[in-house]
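Appendix B. Chain record.
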Amino acid sequence: MKIKEVIDVNEGRLLVLPDEQSDLKTDSGITIETNQESLPHRTGTIVKVGFPLYHPGIMELVPNRYKEGERIAYEPRQMVEIKLDGVEHQIIQPGVILFSFKDGKD
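Structure tokens predicted for this chain:
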């Protein structure tokens, strides 16, 4: 099946465009290695944010705290890999995100 566009992402999940394998440098000068094979984390950009997750404890919808376009580092677990127009993307859960950052590309 060829997927052309993702309209929505399931509860709380995020569609991420993973980075190419090259090191990133943050505005504050921290170097983040992105060689995917040697690191326990990956970096990427959030493309689509899933609709709010229902929290049964408080009986309310809890919006996702991440935004489209935000840069993140995340653990490569519990993810689904898909291709959109031939480009690899990943669907992840917010719990695998280690941190968000700015890298000077903005």
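Further analysis of this model is presented in Appendix C.
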